[in-house]
Amino acid sequence: MKSCFINFLNLFLGLGVFLCFLPAASGEGVVIDRVVAVANREIITQSELDQAEQAMKRERSLSKEGAELPFNLKRDLLTQLIEKRLILQEAKKKGIKLSDSEMELAFRDIEERNHFPNRDAFKQAIAQENLSWEQYVKDLENQLLLLKLMNREIDSHIVLTTEEIQAYYDTHPEKFRLPEKIRLKQVLLRLPENPSKEEVEELRQKAEKILSEAKSGGDFTRLVQEYSDGPERRQGGDLGYFHKGELAQEIDQAVFGLKEETVTPVIKSSLGFHLFKIQEVKESGRQPFEKVKKEIEDQLLSDKREGLRKKWLEELWSRSFVEVK
Asked: Considering the entire predicted model, what is its pTM?
């Protein structure tokens, strides 16, 4: 198991320091590249780990000089490198290979997604990332081998029935609940720019007078047409439907929870003074099964795939020899 790394083959490792020699960047002799792990007699070197760390730093915008990854991320990164090596070994053992046509299909897909007009533009983009084309192709090939193996070992064994999808829908009603929504009409008394205290108070009193008239049975549509400064005045003040949280906080708190035909108290906002009438309240319900069926299917497939993947990887680790230096 990966949580209990196996110490093995001390004879193979000599004195516990297994060295790999690489050409020096400066061209002066060689540099000693420390081994950080061994996976079934294949070594993983410090330079491989350093390259993976640099890639993660770029992804996380930590590429500035001196920036360090947290220890737990470094540990996880090494685990990922070991796991990748074990999977590639398994792919080789099972005879998984990529054809030239499969590689070409992958190249074309990448070019299309990134809007590269031709292969030369693709290669130039790789060079700008300080990667050699040969190394990029090798990394891509390895990644595709991993996917091909996982598809054969995992995806081909996934079975999902319509009954399972229906059962998930029936037992998780909260996940597919439609929120309550209300339809509003508005009278807006807009504040002038940089109003004085007197102007604010005068407009407030006017809004209270309109509210009193509305509560006395005055037709709200007529009040909109007579007093409102809002652009929805032409539609009789109709603002349409809103879910909770879509309106300004002070308005949201005032309108939700009220019954149909209720008129709110005067509400002040940055725009001015508002009066709202609740035209309609649509209670929360549940989305139809057919509308969310594909969403549930994708979720269940993902869950099953992850469960099988985890089990498969645990079995792979358990029958592998791994030592971390």
From this structure: 0.57
The answer as to whether 54 is a domain residue is: yes
Largest pairwise CA distance in the chain:
97
Supply the angle between the helices 162-171 and 289-318 in degrees, to the nearest 10. 110
Written as one string, the DSSP assignment of 50-80 is HHHHHHHHHHTT--STT----HHHHHHHHHH
Residue 207 domain-assigned (yes or no): yes
Rounded Cα–Cα distance for residues 253 and 250 (Å): 5
Cα–Cα nearest to 191, from 266, 122, 247: 266
Within this chain, do residues 256 and 213 fall inside the same structural domain, yes or no? yes
The two tokens of residue 248 are 């300004």
Q: Which pLDDT score, from 0 to 100, does residue 5 have?
A: 28
d(C-alpha 23, C-alpha 32), whole Å = 9
pLDDT tier at 66 (50, 70, 90 boundaries)?
Answer: low
Q: Which domain holds residue 53?
A: 19-157+305-324
Number of domains in the chain: 2
43 and 115 together in one domain: yes
What average pLDDT score do residues 167-185 get? 91
Residue 145 lies in a domain: yes
Tell me, yes or no, whether 136 lies in a domain: yes
Do 138 and 208 belong to one domain? no
Rounded to an integer, what distance in angstroms lies between the CA atom of residue 39 and that of residue 49?
A: 14
Question: Which ranges constitute the DSSP H helices of the chain?
Answer: 46-59, 71-93, 100-113, 119-128, 133-153, 162-171, 197-215, 220-227, 249-255, 289-318
Do 121 and 229 lie in one domain? The reply is: no
Closest residue by Cα to residue 214 from 256, 266, 255: 266
Tens of pLDDT, residue by residue over 220-254, are: 999 999 999 989 998 999 999 999 889 999 999 99
Query: Which CATH number do you get for residue 207?
Result: 3.10.50.40
* Domain co-membership, 222 together with 150: no
> Is 159 in contact with 258 (CB distance < 8 Å)?
no
**pLDDT of 304 higher than 80:** yes
Task: Give the pLDDT confidence score for residue 283 in this predicted structure.
Answer: 80
Q: Kindly state the percentage of the chain with pLDDT values over 90.
A: 68
